[in-house]
Amino acid sequence: MNAPLLIAQPMLAHARVPDSPQLAHWGEDIKRILCVRLDNLGDVLMTTPALHALRESGPGRHITLLGSRSGAALAPHLDDVDDVIEYEAPWVANPSAGSRSLADDQRMVERLRRGNFDAAVIFTVYSQSPLPAAMLCYLAGIPRRLAHCRENPYALLTDWLREPEPQQRTRHEVERQLDLVRQVGAHAPDTSMRFAVHESDRRTLTKQLAARGLQVEANGSAPWIVLHPGATAASRRYPPERFGQVATRLAHETSAPILITGGASERDLVEAVIAAAAPRVRAQLHDMSGALTLGELAALIERTSVLVSNNSGPVHLASALGTPVVDLYALTNPQHTPWQTPHRVLFRDVECRWCYRSVCPQHHHACLLGVTPGEVVTAALELHAEAQSRAASPRCASNNESAADHTDAAPPCAGEPVVP
User: How far, in Å, CA of 237 to CA of 243, rounded?
Assistant: First the structure.
């Protein structure tokens, strides 16, 4: 249930990557660790098991996250993170890159130097080079520096693993980062993704929902379904017209309220979904775009029977919270499927898979357009029914089982390729 999408992995002509030497475990002298993860919110969430392993594997460890604006927003909800530094790195795509200067990077070097870090771990996907971040940490005087690296980093990394992906194998993103920190002795039995929902966010969410006529049950459960039609990249978005068809059928089949989430910048997208739904069900549709903080969004997903979403941050929130999720999975990257939660991954195989592009390079978007609204509805209804069954089960109630305990109970839906 946690494997990447191992379908027709590329057989590249490169020579086999040599095995990495055994690295020495980091001892008790390694206490202040800088964890560099400069991509989006979902990437940081998929790194949280590795952060937890680092924290738990040495006495008195202090974890600082160096992250982008979206990644740093997670810090108040990550119990394993003691401090956060926001940094829009020039080697990572970001909307504010045009307003930055060399002085920003020089100030960051000095800030990291003042942090007196004993070590840095640089987390990347396999298409990224760790060397710019390694240079930053090297200039800041951080003595131990760990990362995956494809080429010889010489003095920039003191501890490194030769990059095996994708020539030798492809791992789930969570496993990739756990494998990295394991090389320096960081282990933890709990490999779940982590996000702490604050009680204050639950309270403010409950008030917002009550104002819309929606009630949370006394046990915290809720009958509603959440749709999330947005994604940062156009290549990962299922069309809003099809989301509207999905909303229509789910409202008709379940009579459940349908909540449609998105950021303030996605109001037009959410409105397009509602406009595409049948007029007779629009009373069951609730526009939540721009209405929720990150904490409130997590509190909503936590109480949701099933999330239907493009492969984006909310999918990874669902994984961290044990919420069932239908993941509309564009084949841009094989490593970011849901982790340890009931799920269905829907896509159509295409020759241009694993393109890593923000816009479909072939202009046909077939990996997502090949998925019909009927398949999405079938998958959502299956997970919705399973969630309601668990909520009503005396065994689950008495044993306080989490949704992650039931991941193997969910078979692939009709028409979905089998995920190993």
Answer: 10
Structure-derived torsion over alpha carbons of residues 242, 246, 252, 253, reported in degrees to the nearest 10: 150
Retrieve residue 263's tokens. 């950021």
pLDDT along the chain (420 residues), means of 10: 59 48 86 96 96 95 96 96 96 71 94 98 95 98 97 95 88 95 94 97 94 76 86 87 96 92 94 95 93 96 94 95 94 88 92 78 84 96 85 51 37 34
Residue 185: closest CA among 29, 36, 39, 320: 29
Q: What is the dihedral of CA 182, 187, 192, 193, to 10 degrees?
A: -60
Q: Using an 8 Å Cβ cutoff, are 338 and 351 in contact?
A: no
End-to-end CA distance of the chain: 7
For CA atoms 221, 252, 377, 395, give the dihedral sign. positive
What is the token pair recorded at 43?
A: 């990437």
Domain around 338: 218-409
Give how far Cα 84 sits from Cα of 30, 42, 76, 81, Å.
Answer: 18, 16, 9, 7
| Residue 45 tokens, joined | 């969430």
Count the alpha carbons within 13 Å of 122 in the hemisphere toward its beta carbon: 26
Domain of residue 143, CATH code = 3.40.50.2000
The answer as to whether 187 is a domain residue is no
**Are residues 320 and 368 part of one domain?**
yes
CB-CB contact of 333 with 400 (8 Å): no
348 and 248 share a domain?
yes
Instruction: For residues 23 and 87, give the distance between their C-alpha atoms in angstroms, rounded to a whole number.
Output: 29
Integer CA distances (angstroms), 253 to 240, 284, 375, 377, 412, in order: 20, 12, 14, 9, 20
Three-state SS at 109 = helix
CA-based nearest residue to 202, from 78, 77, 304, 299: 299
Q: Give strand pairing partners of 32.
A: 62
The sign one gets for the Cα dihedral 82, 404, 407, 221 is negative
In a domain, 195, yes or no: no
Given CA atoms 366, 371, 372, 373 in this order, what sign does their dihedral have?
negative
Indicate the SS3 state at residue 275.
helix
The pair phi, psi for residue 340, each rounded to 5°, is: 55, 40
